[in-house]
Design a protein that fits this description.
The chain is α+β, with helices and mostly antiparallel strands. The chain has two domains: 131 residues, no CATH class; 311 residues, Jelly Rolls, CATH 2.60.120. 17% of the residues lie in helices and 37% in strands. The strands form five sheets. Strands 6, 9, 12, 14, 21, 22, 23 and 25 form an eight-stranded antiparallel beta sheet that branches. A hairpin with a 5-residue loop joins strand 17 and strand 18. The longest helix has 56 residues. The N and C termini lie far apart (69 Å).
Length: 457
């Protein structure tokens, strides 16, 4: 009996050891599968982003005429090759861009070749886009300090956190490589494709939103984006986010009309939301916490009403303030509440596409003996504040926060940060004060989908 028991124990131990080895092998393979899936998603989004940027950079027919010197339709006339690491976005390298004619010499084509590499996993992707002129583009008014377009799919960020892989970075298309880092929880991805209804009531992916393919969601609870205070390579500036004598801030957004009510994850936060862009002044000084170097935010004045106020703020170097405040009524239903009272949860309302995007802009400049703040909605000036004396804005040392106020937790609770509840597309900063014409051009002048002939992967 003892020998039989011993044989049985040995047999079961061998079987159990085999099972453990199999489980360990499968677990070891999970990260590779996740990484490959993530890379495929990322390289797809980067490909779209790079193609649109390449078209935007070809911002005049003169540019194309200068580089396309061939006479044969379809002939590749201009190729830009890049070394690995030279044009890196996230985990992807742009290896080449090719400009050529498409269909005719009135239509043009750009083709991208991109490599993705992460944790020993490598993938490649080729894609092309054809377009025509006259092309309405961002041209010379694309924000040049930082510009986040939220085109990267941040798939299962919480799961990648478990494996210590940072899948939260959003590329900066200004060329300064600031990158924004997404914070907080999102089950699938904080960035989402923009869908519209076609003529037969099917949902189709569209170059919609604020004229791009994806937008980013803010749940009004713990979602926000940070950009560190760093200087671009070879920069002559002493400050990264150079809030000096001239600059502009801007973004497209849909501010949820109702606000975040009590749910399974939080109490009623309708009076605790609204921050779009926030550049802090002194992060460690208590009396400067609510005096940003520059900021744009919405304030709820009545939790039972869509009406509120938009604030545009500049803190000057002497700690005085320029402020434009306007009455503002939210129009969009962005999030929908599923369930009853505190047992409810929130998800994006699929009908939000019926509501238009709004752009919000701020410019600051010193000229003619004055310091001047100008506020914009949808590219139209809505207010201006001035002060005698040409005084720069308060120096910024702490980067930029999108979706919440950057307040020191030593002085303030999380509720004071006023998290944004809505969606956003394209946020940026320029080191010049845009003219009213330029701000309107930025609002209207993003590439229109009707001029894209085709997109092919």
């Amino acid at each position: 009996m003892g020998r039989a028991s011993l044989v049985f124990v040995i047999l079961m131990t061998s079987i159990f050891a085999g099972v453990l080895v199999r489980i360990q092998s499968n677990i070891a393979g999970v990260p590779d599968v996740l990484i490959r899936n993530q890379l495929n998603k990322e390289i797809e989004n980067i490909s779209d982003f790079v193609l649109r940027a390449a078209v935007r950079n070809a911002n005049s027919q003169d540019f194309l005429d200068s580089v396309l010197n061939g006479e044969i339709v379809g002939q590749i006339s201009h190729i830009q090759n890049f070394d690995i690491g030279e044009r890196r976005i996230g985990n992807c390298d742009v290896l080449s861009l090719e400009y050529s004619y498409a269909h005719s010499q009135d239509h043009y084509k750009v083709k991208s070749h991109i490599r993705g590499f992460l944790q020993g996993v490598e993938v490649f992707r080729d894609a092309e886009m054809a377009f025509s002129f006259p092309m309405v583009t961002l041209g010379t008014v694309a924000p040049n300090v930082v510009y986040l377009e939220f085109e990267r799919m941040l798939l299962l960020t919480w799961l990648f956190d478990i494996f210590n892989i940072n899948n939260r970075l959003l590329p900066d298309s200004s060329g300064n490589d600031y990158e924004g880092e997404f914070h907080g929880f999102s089950f699938i991805s904080p960035t989402a494709p923009y869908f519209v209804q076609d003529n037969i009531d099917d949902e189709v992916e569209s170059w919609g939103g604020a004229y791009s393919k994806r937008y980013i969601k803010f749940n009004g609870l713990d979602n926000y984006i940070t950009m560190d205070n760093k200087l671009p390579l070879e920069s002559e500036d002493e400050e990264a986010f150079d809030t000096d004598n001239d600059f502009s801030l801007m973004c497209f957004a849909k501010i949820d009309k109702t606000g975040r009510r009590a749910s399974l994850l939080s109490g009623d936060r309708r009076d605790q939301q609204g921050t779009l862009l926030w550049i802090p002044s002194e992060y460690n000084v208590s009396d400067m916490q609510h005096k940003p170097s520059a900021a744009i935010y919405f304030e709820t004045t009545n939790t039972s009403s869509a009406k509120g106020k938009m604030h545009y703020v500049i803190t000057l170097e002497d700690k005085s303030e320029l402020r434009v405040t306007i009455n503002y009524t939210r129009q969009a239903v962005v999030w929908r509440r599923i369930g009853i009272s505190f047992l409810s949860v929130y998800s994006i309302d699929p009908n939000h596409a019926q509501y238009p995007w709004n752009s919000y802009g701020l410019t600051f400049e010193t000229k003619n003996g004055k310091s001047i703040l100008t506020a914009y909605v949808d590219g139209v000036q809505v207010g201006q504040a001035q002060k005698d004396g040409e005084q720069r804005a308060y120096p910024s040392k702490y980067g930029m926060s999108i979706g919440r106020k950057a307040l020191n937790s030593s002085f303030h609770s999380d509720d004071d940060r006023k998290y944004f509840f809505g969606i956003m597309d394209q946020a940026g900063m320029d080191d010049r004060a845009f003219t009213p014409y330029e701000m309107k051009l930025w609002h209207d002048g993003v590439m229109k989908s009707s001029l894209v002939q085709y997109i092919k992967d």
